[in-house]
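Schema walk-through. Below, the input block comes first and the output block second. Nothing else is stored per chain. Lengths vary across the set, and this one has 155 residues.
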Amino acid sequence: DYVIINGNRQGKIEEISMRHLKIRQYDGYLYTVSYSSITELQNGNRGMLRVNESLVLNYRQNPDDAFKVMEEVAKICNEKYGEYLIKDEDGVPLESFKFNHITELNVDFRGHRYSISGLVKEADFVEAGKKVRYELAMAAYKNELMMAESLNTSQ
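--- output ---
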């Protein structure tokens, strides 16, 4: 099942034990959440899922420049992939693709995470995620954003 815990951790349940849940977020992170820390649990498998894609940019990347690029990517995604978004009865998206600012600092001691999300139809989740990742990669390339680099120096 896809769940949202306490409004800030979302992903697929990978393990249920006597003391905790392990959920895998779509950015790949595995979170262990003890039952005692859960104040709210939402089941997200109701025809909609949240695409949440991100770039980890180098510490030396100017955040103002990154913000401009990420805002533009969200705009492009809304224009090109709006058909994937969940809409209300008037055809207005419940949650358009949006830039969520810096969502994590000090990612693996390499840089900061900048993310984009949008609420899409469950059937379109995988395809929408691919499209958003493509737009992020293309924008990073065209705008010469400084991606975080591996600290591994062995060849």
